[in-house]
User: Fold this.
Amino acid sequence: MSIARSASSLQLARETRERFVLATEGAIVPLARAIRDRLTVLASEVSNARAMQEHRDDFVAFQGQATQWVSLAQTGWRKALGAGSTQSGGLTTFPTALRLELIGDEVVESNILASRLAQVVHDKASFELSDLRLRIQHLEGTSELDNKDVLKPETLSRLLVEQWLAAGLSRGLWSRVQDTVQQELVDVIVKAYEGANAFLIANGVMQEIDLKSFVRRTGDTGGSGPSTGRASVSAAQMDSGMAGAGTAPGAVQRPGFGFGAAPPQASVPMPAPALTTGGSPLMIARQPRRRRC
Assistant:
């Protein structure tokens, strides 16, 4: 659902995205340096012959393609600001069904790599990202950000992986340096979210976010009753209190029946002497029947 917004509101939302892209784009070059340093250390380590050869190959491969990856990533990140931007990395536009099936597996593998980075960002920036999402939706009159919105962690993560592959680097190499990628990038993205929120607050956009209305809508079931969480607590309290306030003195609840589900003879009178004889509730409940036999 979309609600019409003023040109100034839409422009403010766009400027927020531009500032976010600028802040995160600046981290790509330092990230490449950190990856190179990490591969240099690995290539110099003494290990078994196979591992040493793999580390040298990784270093040579990245050394040859790092500049291209940085250029592709920066250019693609700036283009992601464009309306209707579609970035598939050229992986899903092949003509034959067979090729599509084969490429589909590669897309899944790439998405898995990107999702790992995106998940770390989500974990670190959950509150800042949530606030920013609400402010942008308020400005644009929408109920959700677009799947390819640059403000979503998945968008930058996916772009970095796609351009990594486009530069001729392997998924295996990305997997081996992904810890370095996370260490160098996550804090930068979190600060970019903080900066975006500060920018909007300075411009008078939802300076205080009141989540009470969102909680009410989530817990509302169409009536005037309490939210789902409180309803569950109340039900549990009533259920656990059946043997006390909800049950007549001198009576017990039959095992196996919950609140409101007991049969007509769910509770039976208990003679005073039986209360001191011990035994399970089921045995005690059967005693009046034996006396009637």
